[in-house]
Structures are given as C-alpha cells and as structure tokens.
Amino acid sequence: MNFPPRRCHVFVGLAGSLLLSALPVTAMAKTAPEAASGASQRTFWSSLVLQERRAPDVWNRLRKGFRMSHETANPRVAEWLAWYREHPQHVEQVAEQAKPWLRWVTRRLEAHQLPSEIALLPFIESGYDPTATNPGGAAGLWQFMPGTGDAMGLSRTAWYDGRHDVVAATDAAMNYIKQQAGRWYDGDMLLALAAYNAGAGTVNAARNAAANRGDPIDYWHLRLPAETMAYIPRLLALSAVIAEPEQYGVALPSIPDKTQFAQVDTGGPLTLSMAADLAGVDPQTLRDLNPGFKRASTRPRDDASLLVPAAAKQRFLANLATLPTAERTVLNRYVVRRGDTLSAIAARFGASVNEIRQENGLEGSIIRIGQTLSVPATTLAQNGDHR
Predict the structure, then answer these.
(1) C-beta of residue 372 within 8 angstroms of C-beta of residue 335
(2) Pick the catalytic residue: 34, 71, 117, 125?
(3) 138: Cβ–Cβ under 8 A, 6 or more apart, which residues?
(4) Contact 206, 223 (CB under 8 A)
(5) 125 is catalytic
(6) C-alpha 238 chain-centroid distance
(7) How far apart are CA 181 and CA 188, in angstroms?
(8) Coil, strand, or helix at residue 374?
(9) How far apart are alpha carbons 223 and 210 in whole angstroms?
C-alpha cells in the first residue's frame, strides 16, 4: 500500500526515545504529491515534520580526538582488524564495562592534549575494569606496576591503592606517557606507548640494536617482546574499529556525552554504606565508583573525598551538612579470634551487629576463627592496622 510521503521532526532524547513536535501548518512546505494535487486540507499527522537529531554521544567525542594514523594496510594491524571482525562481541562487552569511565578518560586526554586513541588502551590493558589485577603485579584500569605507580604518585596503604582509583590513575597514566614521549622520543607517540608497555629501557635497547643493524629506529622496525610487538598494532586496529564500527559488525552501546560522576569532599571519614545512604544510592554503586578504597570506607587520614553519581551530588552534600560528627564511621579490619562473637566485636568497636553483618554480607551470626571482618567504628581500633 502506497502512502503519500510525510515528514515530522523527531527529537531523540538522552534515553533514546522519540519525541514528536507538531509544527504550525504555515511552517510546512508542501510535499510534491500535495502540490501536484492542490490538496488544501491538512490533518494533524500531515503537519508533522520528521527530522533526526541524535543526542551527543561519547563515541563521537572520542572520534573527534583521533590524531594517530591507524595504519590499516600494515599487515600487523590488518591481522588484528581481522580478529576484531571475527570477535565483535569482545569490543561490545568491554565497551559496556567502559561506560562509567570513557567520558572522563576522553576529557582528560583533551586536557592533556593527547590523541584520544589512548582512551582505548584500557580495552587492552584491563578490559576497562579498574579492579583488574595481574599476577605479575600490575593493577587497575591502566595496569600500573607498584614501582611505576609509586613514582607517579599513586599511594598504596592498607586503606587505599591509587592504581585502582580511576581518577588518580588516569592522570598518572597520561603524565607517564607524556614523560616518555618528551624525554626519549621527541614526541613520537608510538614509541612512547611501546615504552608504556615494555619500559623505556627495553625500547631504547631495541632502538640501539636496530641502529647497529642499519635499520630505522621507529617503532615498526624494532624487535621487541611479543606482547609489545602486538600492543601498538592492536591499539591502532581497535581505533579503526571504533572509528567505523558498522564496517566491522560492532554495535557500540550508547554512552551519553554528559557527566557520569562527581568528586566530593566528605569533610572526614565515612563508610561507603553511610555515604550511599546520604547520597540515596545503592552501596554497591559507590563501591564501583571508588575501587581505590580497600575497605569500603574513605581513608581516615589523607584526603577524605569520593566519587558519587553526578545526579546524587547535591543530595549527598545537603545530607552531609547535617550529619553529626559523632555519627561518622570508618571501617576497621578485625581478625576473628577464639571466643569472639559478633555482639562482643560490635561492643568493642561501638558498632551494631546489623552494621557488621551489612558491611560483610553476613546473613547470620556465625563467624570463623581467622576470618577478617570490616567493622564500622567511630574511632580507629588499636589493632595496629589503621593507616
């Protein structure tokens, strides 16, 4: 059945819904069939104009910052392009994991004036999982080794590991990449990224070896460890896939180009469960946003800040302003000893049995000797573990 063509304005909101906007009849241009027939009567539906308007999207922001040559004709890159084409679900799954963080990382790259392809490194390093750890010692979204993390100011204590803190580790990673590029490679980003993966000593030794062979000393002519040989081609191939996902059969999830979280000063120690109550969000939400904290609590000393969902910021701050100091709690780590009971431990720390159950996911009162419990307390326990 043939229908006369009609146009409507379609406005796509951030949630992806379609909103129809009726326009005055006088603002409408006649369609060709109407002009030909001289039809003068208009209905409501014939007075709608369809026009697609997409909501701002993080992927578009990311692509605008692409500055590297993706070298898709290079055999080493082409090999990874074929792999991504055969495994589109891998990109899609990691992209889902990246949702809370990708905009932040992209914005920080803009601030550091670095190519936005670097925002895709955590796809390779950690699957965009800030809790990721490697048996070799690397940890976090950017997989910092302990020594490198220390050198870049990512502190590690019994309460906190900055390598898992996405905000701190992201800036540390960008500063580290810029340091490598500026100190050793005259701004060559491929060499800097190779050094990020293998270490500048390894890359510089490979460059010296290439020079001694009479080969060029750019990244593509170096003999590096197998992981580093694949590292750059994999990143460039992934960048090409993100640039044109449809070409590779990849369906990227929608990520609105708007603030996902806000950093707030707590003015003192708080457990994440109490902070969640103040913000009106699920405690797991705050744990996911603050993976740097080891005990589901802010650090009792140092800074006392945390991330909350952007939409919950004002509620959190308003409720925090009315919170009595005496009600603030931190989490102590307590190892169960012979003869301990939940009620006795609660009394020792000034907590309730229900609070201990909530912080440790306990349904009953059974505890085991040697079991480590996170115990809310208004003061730090004198057990030698309160950094």
Answers:
(1) yes
(2) 125
(3) 144, 145
(4) yes
(5) yes
(6) 17
(7) 6
(8) strand
(9) 8
Q: Which residues lie below 8 Å from residue 98, measured CB to CB, with a gap of 6+?
A: 122, 123, 128, 255
Best CA proximity match to 328, nearest among 375, 378, 382: 378
- Two tokens, residue 231: 């590292």
pTM of the model: 0.76
Q: What is the DSSP string of 188-218?
A: -HHHHHHHHHH-HHHHHHHHHHHHHHT---S
Name the one residue in this structure whose structure tokens are 């004002």.
Answer: 314
Which residue matches tokens 């005259």? 186
Nearest-CA neighbor of 264 among 299, 308, 296?
308
Angle 189-198/200-213 helices, nearest 10 degrees?
A: 120
The string of pLDDT tens digits covering residues 286-345 is 999 999 998 778 876 545 789 999 999 999 999 999 998 877 777 777 899 999 999 999
Are 306 and 269 in contact by the 8 Å Cβ rule? The answer is: no
Residues 6 or more apart whose Cβ sits within 8 Å of residue 252: 59, 91, 92, 95, 242, 245
